Amino acid sequence: MRLYTGQHQFYAGIDLHARSLYAHVLDQRGRTVLDRDLPASPDAFLDAVKPFRKGLVVGAECMFAWYWLADLCEDHSIPFVLGHALYMKAIHGGKAKPDRIDAGKLAAMLRGGMFPMAYVYPRAKRQTRDLLRRRSYFVRQRAQLIAHIQNTNSQFNHPPFPKKLTYAGNRTADIAQRFDDPSTRLSIAADLGLIAGYDEQIATLERHLVRNAKVDDPVTSTRTASSIDDRNASRR
Q1: pTM above 0.85, yes or no
Q2: Res 236 pLDDT > 80
Q3: Domains along the chain with CATH numbers
Q4: Which own/partner pairs from 188-196 qualify as long-range (CB within 8 Å, at least 24 positions apart)?
């Protein structure tokens, strides 16, 4: 766990939500100089912290909406620290706390050198990373559908499939005909249809990633692109 220990004139704790945020700013002596509920908009945030811009550091907990705030701080040369949600025991210790308390705790943790840091992924690479994560989700969903077909086949004690259903060429519409009950056939046919849709979407994402990931990150993304190429070759 890495803690932020930078010294500043003002420390802003931001309890961030999708459409709103709560800002709490402390000075070097720990006195509250701003305590306000704001809309989650760049103009509202910049206007609120304008009197404290010189020597200000901003800290927010890692949640899904942090991208725009990190980018805004970068554009205006305001130091930004992303809090590691898992280690923020001071925040997660209570079950029901208002945003005002959370924002105040974030500011106090920043000021006290007890703010656990998460990695602020560079904005130029975030979109490729998010697309990789989306692809990974689709792959897991497809695997669950394939597992459901195999489990259903075992439930009825049918003979094992002669070839692995992982490969698209081994999945045919007549797989559903193994089952006598119309509802079961429809369930398996639905699985096959969804798997085919995932195949198409995953292939589209992979083509894009192979072309672009190498540009975004010449080391880790190249390895990812190469592994995608290898897996695609093994499926053919």
Answers
A1: no
A2: no
A3: 3-118 (3.30.420.10), 123-235 (no CATH)
A4: 188/149, 188/152, 191/145, 191/146, 191/148, 191/149, 192/149, 194/142, 194/145, 195/142, 195/145, 195/146, 195/171, 196/168, 196/171
DSSP state letters, the chain: --EE----SEEEEEEE-SSEEEEEEEETTS-EEEEEEEES-HHHHHHHHGGG-TTEEEEEE--TT-HHHHHHHHHTT--EEEE-GGG-HHHHTSSS--HHHHHHHHHHHHHTT-EEEE----HHHHHHHHHHHHHHHHHHHHHHHHHHHHHHHHHTTPPPPSS-TTSGGG--GGGGGG--SHHHHHHHHHHHHHHHHHHHHHHHHHHHHHHHHHHH-TTHHHHHHHHHHHHHHHH-
Tell me the mean pLDDT in the region 80-102.
Answer: 79
Residue pair 52/12 in contact by the 8 Å Cβ criterion: yes
The number of residues in the chain equals: 236
